[in-house]
Amino acid sequence: xxxxxxxxxxxxxxxxxxxxxxxxxxxxxxxxxxxxxxxxxxxxxxxxxxxxxxxxxxxxxxxxxxxxxxxxxxxxxxxxxxxxxxxxxxxxxxxxxxxxxxxxxxxxxxxxxxxxxxxxxxxxxxxxxxxxxxxxxxxxxxxxxxxxxxxxxxxxxxxxxxxxxxxxxxxxxxxxxxxxxxxxxxxxxxxxxxxxxxxxxxxxxxxxxxxxxxxxxxxxxxxxxxxxxxxxxxxxxxxxxxxxxxxxxxxxxxxxxxxxxxxxxxxxxxxxxxxxxxxxxxxxxxxxxxxxxxxxxxxxxxxxxxxxxxxxxxxxxxxxxxxxxxxxxxxxxxxxxxxxxxxxxxxxxxxxx
Length: 353
Known about the structure:
Blueprint: H1 2-7, E1 14-15, E2 19-20, H2 21-30, H3 34-76, H4 98-107, H5 109-140, H6 146-158, H7 165-173, H8 178-186, H9 188-191, H10 201-208, H11 215-228, H12 231-239, H13 244-255, H14 257-273, H15 276-281, H16 288-293, H17 295-304, H18 313-349
Antiparallel strand pairs: 1-2
Helix pairs in contact: 3-18, 4-17, 4-18, 5-10, 5-11, 5-14, 6-11, 11-14, 12-13, 14-18
């Protein structure tokens, strides 16, 4: 019977010896001083207000994040006349794939996508490997100048790419100073072949030297992750006869799989969205980011056979939103499949919490 009375608390509000929750609360409050009562009332008010505030915050964040995507989808599949129709807000009156098709033609999408993937995936893989080795060295080994070198890594995070763009361009243009020497020795015809501008090497070489796009942050992530792994893993490997390199490959890398995936996804996104570094070393529109940057000119040439034709700003939005949709769709698809592992890697790398 006592258990039945206790179970009635949710329905009949009966607790313990037949007292309701309100009666028990009143008895407790009679035994409290004014400060305790005020604290209890503030706590009850927060418990009622916080769910509403939390809903409003989440709703606002979702609106800020989803609004551009919703507007992008709406514009990408509507006809040009819908932009002049004041009754069309979100749902197009005339659904069409014409705008999307014209944008894909202007961007030469499939060829550009192949070029972007060649640079993006390749540089990301190379950079993940080199940054992992560098981060492991900072996390596990002691050597002279370690703090100074790690300070340089932090400067790589803080200093923008624009600061080193001109020196890098000169190095690639003259092949690290070898081109003038070769021209003097073998003539201009041979020396001109040692110009790395407009070649994938301008992106691959910095990634190979752990100096690619946002490489400093990736080194920092790997350093934090490897520092969090137990030192006993390496001690056991050394006792079994493994050297530092074999220990890194066979012991540390399998335990850092989530961190590798996280850094790889970061690298893919940064290389995918980059247009400054690409526009510095490429004179042709070789990537999706560069195509999107020059989409206005490309559309004018494709649609009107003239780069000087001005398209109405309201209609121009359609093609720009379609271009943005084409640019972000591969990343959204990739993230949808890898979101679980990406979140796990973020938590274990020490970037949150």
